[in-house]
Amino acid sequence: MAALRRGAVYLTLFRSSARVLFSCKRPTVHKVGKWMYTSIATLTVGSGLCAVPFKQVESLSHDTLIRRAASLVTDSSSTFLSQTTLALIDAITEYSKAVHTLIALQRQYVASLGKLSPAEEDSIWQVIIGQRAEVKNRHDECMRYESSWVSAVRMCETAAEAAYTSGAEHASITSRTNVQVAQVQVEEARKLSVDADKKLAETKVMEIEKMAQYAASIQNNDEEEIPDAYLRED
Question: Is position 39 within any domain?
Fold first, then answer.
């Protein structure tokens, strides 16, 4: 009879301990490369200890987790950099095309001075004005994307520094290499826009000179058409 009572007491104690154990919040399991965390609950049953392992996997150190987090940051910043670099290069290319189109229109107008009717001349000027607006819009787009690109470069440099200090040397080197490649690509694209701006400036100078020559020729023609009688003194 006493043995039965002890058995009932042990069973009650076991059930109470189990309820307490399973009513506790389970540890949050984070996925950082692999599932981790170990939890061992000890359950008192009678006079002995019973170890109940829930999940046993490799436990990672703080340094390892920091290095992995730093690698993730460098990957994200490199993605941001690649997208802004592509957008900036495309914007610069479109700006250069717009400038060259404007140059062609202005040269065509200069070459046609004195050969067009007023209506034709006004029509060409409307096209030139529209193309100048297009050039301005493309330039504004370049400035907008360049601002994002500069931020991306700074972010990558900061991420590379953080990765290096945390011990993720490979991630740091990769991030710095990505920055260098992006800078070279953007610099090559900028050469196209600089060349286009230079040719546009030359075209404007040529246009001013041609317009001055054309105005002088018109004035000379007007003077030649005046009868000599009007030129003689009384």
Answer: no
Contact assessment for residue 193 and residue 201, using Cβ atoms and an 8 Å cutoff = no
Dihedral sign, Cα of residue 161, residue 166, residue 171, residue 174: positive
Cα angle 27, 31, 34; round to 5: 110
Burial of 222 (C-beta count, 10 Å sphere; 0-12/13-18/19+)? exposed
- Is 19 part of a structural domain of the chain? no
Closest CA to 45 of 11, 72, 22: 11
How would residue 226 be classed by pLDDT, with cut points 50, 70 and 90? very low
Residue 178 belongs to domain spanning: 62-220
Q: What's the total number of domains in the chain?
A: 1
* Cα-trace Rg, the chain: 39
- The answer to whether position 51 is within a domain reads no
- Nearest Cα residue to 72 out of 29, 34, 33, 28: 33
Q: State the CATH number of the domain containing residue 130.
A: 1.20.58.70
Mean pLDDT of all residues in 86-96: 97
Global pTM reads 0.66
